[in-house]
Amino acid sequence: MKRTWWKEAVVYQVYWRSFFDSNGDGYGDLEGLIQKLDYIRDLGVDVIWLNPCYESPDKDNGYDISDYYRIMDKAGDMETFDRLLNEVHKRGMKLIMDLVVNHTSDQHPWFIESRSSKDNPKRDWYIWRDKPNNWRSYFTPSAWEYDEKTGQYYFHSFAVEQPDLNWENEEVREEIYKMMRFWLDKGIDGFRLDAIALLAKPEGFPDAENPYDIRYLTNNPGVHDYLQEMHEKVLKHYDIFTVGEVAFVSPEEGLKYVGEDRNELHTLFHFEVCDEMPTWDPIRFKQIQKRWYEGLWGKGWNSQFLNNHDHTRQVTRYGNDKQFRVESAKLLATLVHTLPGTPYIYQGEEIGMTGVKFDTIEDYNDIAMKNKYAEEVAKGRDPKEVLESLQLLSRDNSRTPMQWDDSEHAGFTTGTPWLKVNPNYKEINVKQALADPNSVYYYYKKLIQLRKQHAVMVYGTFRDFSEHDPYIYAYTRELDGVRWLIVLNHCDNDNVYELPEELASAHRHLLLGNYTDVKEEGTTLYMRPHEARIYALQ
Ligand code: TEU
């Protein structure tokens, strides 16, 4: 298999508005990120993924861009961005930008022109129709919005304020490619391509049988032509790393985006876990891993992540954030860093930050959640019940400010934070984590070190030795005669793992574990709640 830096890398996602506020306005900013770069570097991170910081009315926290060539005031300015890039590079790290090209803000001058009249030259830059079909958008009951001025509807896959660009229009594509070159010529190291599987729309927009199953929004014929053109005209001319957000795909479909012979993207985020597996489902999770491994291995590269700015923090959603928070956070980290693919850390995950439950809808900010809340309450449902039903998966679970210390607002801001800090910041914060040698933070650091020292962790073949076990996940990675065994007890109780014959005779050397000692007898491993072990077998 071809060895590349981005397969070996560990990526750290910075949701800058919640990372560190340098000027007291309540929003994190690029200057704040610069001040915390040493913290990120010390963890061992190679690449930073920066959420969108372009000019934006901020209806969807920067995913509604009104000027691709400017930095939004909340984040800073272009001079600060240039300095950030330079400071990242000085520390031997790389920076990839989040880029949204499926849609813009409705305040983008292109859209303002487009909606101004039917014969405006930019009319065709967006998607206009006389009649809507029955599709829903990700965030609203209809994917179409009526525009009185010209008496037509425009299409939006997300919020009303996020009209989709018309990728069939060549001028649109050329403008986007030009803008991508602008950023790449600055020296950024790649893109995380937002909602990239949505670029192509189906001919004629036929009605869906079940409008609630929004798969129709993604993977439509033509998307690969756009990506191959983007690769040809932009991406292939730079030594960069690209990761595309590709929802609702099987490994076979996914391979079309990332196949090494396809000239499209390097890697993808598929969402079989984060979108489609609401709570921990061990057998299903194992099947997903196995299928993606078999589908991609040797042909294209996967990503590993259990949360991001759209998905509730992993220790809350997939682990135990109460009695076993520390053990569970370490177990999930072990999983993400030892399964095949490039591992992602979402800011705060490395100290075991948890999700949040605010008492009122007013305390929430997430447009997806707020729209859904309004829709359900309008149907006559009990508001309290609606709030409760939306809490676990609200995107604000992962967006609360980074917890730096136990001072007011967790040391995130001297002002009023744009979103409330999780009340548990007095116990869970960076300062505490750095002072405790057994913290989640130091465990991440060790995992990342291991990845740098042992190619088996990146390039090793994968085999599951626990397919039907609902609690224990045991698998090997193997490369050039080096064999590792990972054993995880994803459970609040003790469990026993009997080593299969094939592995039983090997000498085991413990490389990393999340308990201070190891209980085993012969070929029987006694695993405590949320215990994780990485062994080298000899
Ligand atoms: O998300 C796209 C998206 O579809 C997610 O809402 C969804 O939850 C998922 O994980 C993929 O199926 C991206 C951004 O990450 C999100 O923050 C934006 O709101 C959205 O695009 C619109 O730009």
Automatic annotation (TrEMBL):
Record's keyword annotation contains Hydrolase: yes
Top EC category: hydrolase
Residues of the Glycosyl hydrolase family 13 catalytic domain: 13-399
GO molecular function, one term: alpha-amylase activity
Matches recorded under CDD domains: AmyAc_SI_OligoGlu_DGase
Any Gene Ontology biological process: oligosaccharide catabolic process
Superkingdom field: Bacteria
The keyword Hydrolase appears for this protein: yes
EC number of this enzyme: 3.2.1.10
Keywords: Glycosidase, Hydrolase
SMART domains membership: Aamy
Catalytically driven reaction(s): Hydrolysis of (1->6)-alpha-D-glucosidic linkages in some oligosaccharides produced from starch and glycogen by alpha-amylase, and in isomaltose
Family to which the UniProt record says this protein belongs: Belongs to the glycosyl hydrolase 13 family.
PANTHER family: ALPHA-AMYLASE FAMILY MEMBER, OLIGO-1,6-GLUCOSIDASE 1
Protein's name according to its UniProt entry: oligo-1,6-glucosidase
Species this chain originates from: Anoxybacillus ayderensis
Lineage, highest ranks first: Bacteria, Bacillati, Bacillota, Bacilli, Bacillales
